[in-house]
Amino acid sequence: MIPEVTQAAKPHWLYTDKFVFDVHKVLKDSLYYPSSGYDGKPIKFFTGNVYSFVYVDQSTTPESLQATINKNGIKGYKQIHKQDIPMHQLIPNGWSVVIKPQREHEYHHPANYRSWIKPGFCQWFIFEATETKDGEEKPTRFSLLFLCGDGPASYQALYLSNRIKPKIVAILQPGHGFGGNWTNYRDPNAIFAKSVTHNRSLMPDYLVDGGNGYENSYTEPIWDDYPTNIANKGLGKYGWGMGVFEKGEFN
Predict the structure, then answer these.
(1) Under 8 Å between Cβ of 149 and 113
(2) What are the Cα distances from residue 57, in Å, to 6, 145, 154, 174, 238?
(3) In a 3-state reduction of DSSP, which class is residue 69?
(4) 170, 151 in Cβ contact below 8 A?
(5) Are residues 166 and 30 in contact, defined by beta-carbon separation less than 8 angstroms?
(6) Which own/partner pairs from 220-228 qualify as long-range (CB within 8 Å, at least 24 positions apart)?
């Protein structure tokens, strides 16, 4: 947990003997991570600030996702629940807010990447803490919703169409250069920023910017709507860092 970010209360739906998926409960005050791959760093840093993580990536399959969890796991936690989530449970009223790309601000057309895009799916996991060291404190459970889909489109469908506000959006080495992403998530004029800032009442409280480099590599804001750097964290031995930016006040 990062102390500069507000701590979350434990959600009742997560501490039960029977897990029932409710999109509004799972998405509310969550952390949204597009082009996530299998990166566990947001879980490492923000568990306790949020209890629900939403990972979105187009290059994975259900088999490779489970194989990665089985092989690498999430340090200090074990998987206690897994459930396939059909589309109608994610967007019960349909994808009603559609923001289209502005070609002059995008790298390439999304269709150029069809060769590596996998068929869509969504799975919901619950993880529970295993034994902890003496004096160590960490949340005993967290939720992970993993969706195989496009980052901007999934944000529009999940949050804007459902009118649900996430708490944090994380942009971490999203691959808009050699990584194969068709759009630049960091560009304030491109489709992802336009999606996140489309409805001011639904904008997340925090924006995380990070990737290769060190913690002092991400001190400058990338979007005007998130002007204040409140924290910088890094994993020096890996050459990785991130900055946390707080939403500004609007008239």
Answers:
(1) no
(2) 27, 11, 10, 10, 23
(3) helix
(4) no
(5) yes
(6) 221/245, 222/171, 222/186, 222/188, 223/188, 223/193, 223/197, 224/188, 224/248, 225/197
- Three-state SS at 15: coil
Amino acid at 160: L
CA distance 247 to 54: 20
Q: What is the pLDDT of residues 30-59, one digit of tens each?
A: 999 999 989 999 999 999 999 999 999 988
- Pair of tokens at residue 157: 């469908």
Place of tokens 């991130």: 242
Which letter does DSSP use for residue 163 in this model?
T
What's the DSSP call for residue 238?
G
Beta bridge partners of 241: 211, 234
The SS3 assignment for 107 reads: coil
DSSP secondary structure letter of residue 160: I
* pTM exceeding the 0.85 threshold for the entire prediction: yes
The pLDDT tens digits of the residues spanning 126-151 come to 999 986 655 556 678 999 999 999 99
**Per-residue CA distances from 30 to 40, 73, 144, 178, 248 (Å):** 15, 21, 10, 29, 19
| C-alpha count within 13 angstroms, C-beta hemisphere, residue 93 | 12
**For 244-251, which contacts have Cβ atoms below 8 Å and span 24 or more sequence positions?**
244/2, 244/4, 244/5, 244/206, 244/207, 244/208, 245/206, 245/207, 245/208, 245/209, 245/221, 246/205, 246/206, 247/203, 247/204, 247/205, 247/206, 247/207, 248/224, 250/200
**43 neighbors 33 (Cβ within 8 angstroms):** no
